[in-house]
């Protein structure tokens, strides 16, 4: 293991200590894990609301944690986010998610989930992060390395913050697997800017134990005795000048152990918070939360650090109108506005100014006469199930293992019952929908569609993974420019006098026909105006739209909104990080 790492910030060259009677790290692989995760836990295609990016200021105490959840089974994500709220945690690294692929989504209660798992095959391993609303606004990017390593970068002040979540191979893994894990992790650290505040969280499946020898990297308040995996972890810390935060704070033993065997007889400290030694003064405490429970035999490990989220500036989200029921009063109101606009001297207005006046007329008329859509989605997991989860947590606090197991079985049964009730409610809604095929299709889609989370990362031309949002936007702009570049060889039509024949101006009937053919139920563009509002604008709407098209033809100038487009990357088969295997849909 020695010499494997490139030492950017070398620590002291003191040798490692290994006790003669070192024991194995865990018996964790013998634990029977819960059932597999269901993608119904969250709405995977949901996105964060638009906002201006804020920064994290390294001046106020915040809680950052890590937890081996042992499988994000149905209902567990809701329980974990509730525990985050109880502990006031802004960032939580999670291990053993058992999720396939990688991506990002937002939960119904506003938490941002970022994860990295296997591309296919058995549901095992997997790592990720959960961010609260405030922290998500400081999000710069993430890099899903593998099903054991994921990195996250946050906008900070005066330095950005890089957080890495890991899930190391267990004690039964081969030396080759450990070499690959540490080698891959070293590659990740080498690419992180040296000025960043670096934090590494996770389940290391290693025991560093109590350190009797004075060390700048490992404190004297560890638990138990070191094993071989602990030696490997110490070498990694020395090569990168990292401290093991757990070992620097004297705690009661119940605040030190992070894993308990299924029978409760063995307790080990195998989850750690690592931090660059230069940021040691920013760390105020690292300890477990024995009372927090999610059905795992690992304890929640939290660190209190100097991190402050500044006040956030949000952009008002777009208004969604209920276009299924547009009253006649809207047509009258918007028609009057358009008629007044037609009486003005439109020649003085540029195409963009005329368009802005039209847009304002439509939106103001809709605001006055059309009701807004309301989010009716309710969490499928019931309050009764959450109360049972709280009872299970109380049993854990008391240390009553038989009662905890009993409550755990009750929670599992309650979650399955909630799933059945959810499906039955949707089936009843379908029956009530009757001949409303649109609503029936939406309900069927909600029950049967296999959703997938969005993946933001992409490779550049040379295959290097881009994680920063600005770099990703630049790469997409570059790719789309090449993809849609006009390469036509058609010659323009030239008349007898040697001049190029212009296209004829648009006709009123052409505009009227086009507006009648607008399809319902389509997403609005950048102007946030659904097509249904234009169709309901009446004859005045047709006339003013024709006037705008004619002005665009004569002035050869497009409105700014008409030159903008929102591209949604839709991954196809192959490497999802490659632009060539992703279809951009506008």
Report the average pLDDT across residues: 80
Percent in strands:
15-25%
CATH first level of the domain at 55-309: Alpha Beta
Radius of gyration: 29 Å
- What summary fits the major beta sheet? 8 strands, mixed
Number of strands: 20
CATH architecture of the domain at 55-309: 4-Layer Sandwich
Identify the overall geometry.
elongated
Detail the poorly predicted runs: 1-51, 308-312
The N- to C-terminal Cα distance equals 50 Å
Number of helices: 13
Proportion in helices: 25-40%
Per the CATH scheme, the topology name of the domain at 55-309 is Deoxyribonuclease I, Chain A
Fold blueprint:
Blueprint: E1 56-68, H1 76-87, E2 89-95, E3 102-106, E4 112-116, E5 127-131, H2 133-136, E6 139-144, E7 149-154, E8 156-157, E9 161-167, H3 175-191, E10 197-203, H4 228-240, E11 242-244, E12 259-260, E13 267-268, E14 271-276, E15 283-289, E16 300-309, H5 328-343, H6 351-369, H7 383-398, H8 401-433, H9 437-448, E17 458-459, E18 465-466, H10 469-483, H11 508-516, H12 531-535, H13 538-555, E19 568-571, E20 582-585
Task: Describe what you observe in this structure.
Helices cover 32% and strands 18% of the residues. The protein has 13 helices and 20 strands. It has a domain at 55-309: 4-Layer Sandwich (Deoxyribonuclease I, Chain A), CATH 3.60.10. It is of the alpha+beta class and 586 residues long. Mean pLDDT is 80; it is low at 1-51 and 308-312. It starts with 55 loop residues before the first strand and ends with a strand. It has helices at residues 76-87, 133-136, 175-191, 228-240, 328-343, 351-369, 383-398, 401-433, 437-448, 469-483, 508-516, 531-535, 538-555, and strands at 56-68, 89-95, 102-106, 112-116, 127-131, 139-144, 149-154, 156-157, 161-167, 197-203, 242-244, 259-260, 267-268, 271-276, 283-289, 300-309, 458-459, 465-466, 568-571, 582-585. The longest helix has 33 residues, at 401-433.
């Amino acid at each position: 293991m020695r010499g494997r790492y490139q030492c950017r910030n070398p620590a002291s060259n003191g040798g490692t200590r290994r006790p003669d009677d070192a024991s194995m790290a865990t018996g964790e692989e013998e634990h029977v894990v819960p059932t597999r995760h269901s993608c119904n836990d969250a709405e995977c295609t949901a996105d964060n609301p638009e906002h201006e990016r804020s920064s994290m200021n390294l001046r106020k105490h915040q809680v950052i944690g890590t937890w081996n959840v042992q499988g994000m089974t149905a209902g567990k994500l809701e329980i974990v986010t509730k525990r985050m709220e109880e502990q006031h945690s802004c960032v939580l690294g999670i291990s053993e998610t058992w999720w396939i692929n990688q991506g990002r989504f937002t939960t119904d209660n506003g938490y941002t989930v970022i994860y990295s798992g296997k591309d296919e095959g058995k549901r095992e391993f997997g790592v990720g992060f959960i961010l609260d609303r405030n922290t998500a606004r400081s999000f710069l990017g993430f890099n899903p390395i593998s099903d054991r390593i994921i990195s996250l970068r946050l906008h900070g002040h005066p330095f950005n913050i890089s957080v890495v979540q890991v899930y190391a191979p267990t004690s039964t893994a081969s030396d080759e697997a450990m070499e690959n894990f540490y080698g891959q992790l070293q590659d990740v650290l080498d690419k992180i800017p040296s000025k960043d505040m670096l934090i590494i969280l996770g389940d290391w499946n290693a025991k560093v134990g109590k350190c009797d020898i004075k060390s700048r990297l490992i404190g004297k308040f560890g638990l138990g005795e070191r094993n071989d995996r602990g030696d490997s972890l110490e070498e990694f810390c020395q090569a990168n000048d990292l401290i093991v935060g757990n070992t620097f704070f004297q705690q009661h033993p119940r605040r030190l152990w992070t894993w308990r065997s299924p029978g409760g007889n063995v307790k080990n400290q195998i989850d750690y918070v690592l931090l660059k030694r230069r940021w040691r003064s920013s760390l105020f405490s690292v300890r477990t939360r024995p009372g927090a429970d999610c059905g795992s035999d690992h304890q929640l490990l939290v660190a209190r650090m100097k991190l402050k989220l500044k006040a956030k500036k949000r952009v008002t989200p777009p208004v969604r109108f209920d276009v299924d029921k547009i009253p006649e009063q809207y047509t009258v109101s918007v028609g009057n506005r358009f008629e007044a606009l037609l009486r003005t001297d439109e020649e003085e207005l540029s195409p963009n100014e005329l368009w802005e006046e039209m847009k304002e007329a439509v939106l103001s008329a809709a605001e006055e006469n059309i009701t807004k859509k309301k989010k009716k989605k309710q969490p499928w997991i019931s309050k009764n199930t959450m109360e049972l989860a709280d009872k299970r947590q109380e049993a854990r606090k008391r240390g009553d293992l038989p009662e905890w197991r009993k409550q755990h079985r009750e929670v599992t049964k309650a979650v399955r019952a909630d799933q059945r009730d959810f499906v039955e409610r949707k089936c009843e809604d379908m029956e009530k929908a009757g001949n409303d095929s649109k609503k029936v299709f939406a309900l069927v889609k909600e029950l049967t569609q296999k959703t997938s989370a969005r993946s933001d990362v992409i490779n550049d031309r040379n295959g290097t993974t881009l994680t920063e949002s600005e770099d990703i936007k630049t790469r997409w702009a570059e790719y789309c420019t090449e993809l849609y570049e006009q390469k036509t060889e058609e010659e323009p039509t030239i008349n007898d006098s040697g001049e190029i024949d212009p296209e004829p101006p648009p006709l009123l009937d052409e505009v009227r026909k086009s507006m009648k053919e607008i399809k319902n139920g389509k997403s609005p563009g950048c102007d946030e105006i659904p097509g249904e509002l234009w169709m309901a604008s009446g004859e005045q709407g047709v006339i003013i739209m024709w006037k705008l098209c004619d002005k665009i033809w004569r002035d050869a100038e497009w409105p700014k909104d008409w030159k903008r487009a929102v591209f949604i990357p839709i991954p196809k088969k192959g490497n999802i990080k490659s632009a060539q295997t992703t279809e951009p849909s506008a």
